[in-house]
Amino acid sequence: MTSFRLPLRGTAIVLTMMAAFFLSACAANTSSTDEHGLLPHLTVDMRLPSELSLGSSGQFRIAISQDGKPVQADDVAFEFWPEGHPEQRVEIPGEFGGSGLYTAEYRLNSEGVYVVRCRVSSGSLEAMPAKRFAIGEEAVLRLAALEQQQTAGAPADGGSSGGHHH
């Protein structure tokens, strides 16, 4: 049986060429990145009301920026729904308050765990951050359990949503 062997110098040249090929294929387009190497993006800081209670309205806020500068978005909407029931989604347009700040008022009429998601678009950029919040003592405990499961790497719903809906 005949074996084919490249001389050591030939092997080094082939490996160098392969490395150059792979590295060139992975080269980043740095002309459209920021100082951290990230592509252009919107930063959305979502703030929940400090006090939320059953039957009263809470003011939900976001601050939108790009590269540390406030952004006036083309479209902002707040979406609310009970956890596990996105078909009950309620959409409220965000009200512009200047300097990249937007707000929406939402009244909670039943206890439970809720999701608030903001849909933000500005030019070709979009962001859709979401947060959970709870109304009522049982819901607060359920939300804490969901967050603990999520932190431990379990699925967000954990399969334990049965029997906790009101």
Automatic annotation (TrEMBL):
The keyword Signal applies. Keywords: Signal. Residues 42-116 form the YtkA-like domain. Residues 1-27 form the signal peptide. This is YtkA-like domain-containing protein.
